[in-house]
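Annex B. Sample input.
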Amino acid sequence: MYRRIEGCRIKYFEQPVEGIERMAQVARAIDAPVMADESAWNAHDVIEIIERRAARWCPSIQPSPADFTGQCKVAAVCKASGIVCNVNGSIETGIGKSRKRALGRGAER
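Annex B, continued. Sample output.
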C-alpha cells in the first residue's frame, strides 16, 4: 500500500500492520516514518518498539483516560529515545484537554 502513495510525501505511516515484529519489517522497507498505534499501549510496549526499530513515532494513549501516569511514562520513554511522542486524545473536553496540553509540553522538553 505504501508504494502506491509514497509520492504524496506523507508525514508518517500509521500502524501499517499488526504486531511489532511485522511493523519493524515494514519500517526497514519504506522511507516514511512508521507510527505505532495499536502496538503501543504502555511504556513497555514502546521500549520494545524502540529496541526493534519498529517505529519513529509513538502515541501517548492509554486504555483508560484516567491513567495520566502511564501516559507520562510513555512520553518519557519516547523523549529519552529520541522518537516522536504523538500526544492525542479522542472526544476529550475540559480537564482532559488541559492534561494533554501539559503532557505535550513535558514531552517537548
